[in-house]
Amino acid sequence: MVRAGSDAVPPSARRFMRRARQRRLRAAAPWAVGGAVVLLGLLAAWLVWGTALFGLRELRVTGTDLVSPADVREAAAVADGTPLARVDLDAVRGRVAELAPVAEVSVSRRWPDTLVIEVVERSPVAVVPQGRRYAVVDGAGVVFRTLAERPADLPVAVVAEPGPDDAATRAALAVLAALTPRLRDELVEVTVAGPAEIRLKLRGDRVVIWGDASRSETKAQVATGLLRQRGDTIDVSAPDVVTIR
Fold it and tell me: Where are the alpha helices (DSSP H) in 109-194?
């Protein structure tokens, strides 16, 4: 038998076969491209999630004063080299938020190798005497620090058990927030002995009987106006009918 040469194939048949090959190549091209994209995606995912190529190299802490960056890093508990993509941001945020002086915290990634922890610390509002020390509370009544000496710039609140769930603490803070600048300057301490037993001790051994924490802004204005009057005790527990003696 003699194999027919290419010249033996009619031109029309050759054109048909060439078009058929081109159609097969065009049909296969998307699959080839798709497969390559998938492989590249898997490779990238492995590099990001499974290797230390994008691992943690720096843990940056901002906004700290009462706590140290070292304390925040310890609380965050993220080991060097941990793939950045695998760091649980919510878990880190929760651990750092457990530090008493921390009011708010945000955690974010900075590619390729940095974790940023931004801290907002609590602001002191008052101190509560506890034995020979002073518990510092914020506006929500959270105790976040203890000092050996009373800070000169913070008012004193005398309550039995300071804390955000303590009614006496909340009442003291409500009264302190309502004080006028004049009353705050004169204030020595605010004492909450019961729901309707709030008293202000002022300089010069003067006392303001406050009653409960209701209408505190009105009581503050009335008490301030009566500071010019003689008398050691100012009773604004019923601010519409006040007494001074």
Answer: 167-178, 181-186
Residue 198 to residue 145: CA distance in whole angstroms:
25
> Contact 2/8 with Cβ under 8 angstroms?
no
CA 80 – CA 113 distance, rounded (Å):
10
Measured over all CA atoms, what is the biggest interatomic distance in the chain, rounded to whole angstroms? 136
This prediction has a pTM of 0.75
Please tell me what DSSP assigns to residue 117: E
SS3 93: helix
Q: How far apart are CA 206 and CA 200, in angstroms?
A: 8
Burial (CB < 10 A; 0-12, 13-18, 19+), residue 73, is middle
CA dihedral 191, 145, 173, 126 (to 10 degrees): 70
Q: 23 with 60: CB under 8 angstroms?
A: no
* Cα-based distances in Å from 9 to 13, 14, 19, 24: 7, 7, 15, 21
Q: Which helix (H) or strand (E) holds 16?
A: helix 11-50
Are 80 and 57 spatial neighbours (Cβ–Cβ below 8 Å)? yes
pLDDT in tens, 187-245: 999 999 999 999 999 999 999 999 999 999 999 999 999 999 999 999 999 999 999 99
Task: Give the start-end residues of each E strand in 84-137.
Answer: 102-110, 114-121, 126-130, 133-137
CB atoms within 10 A of CB 235: 19
DSSP tally for the chain: helices H, then strands E: 6, 12
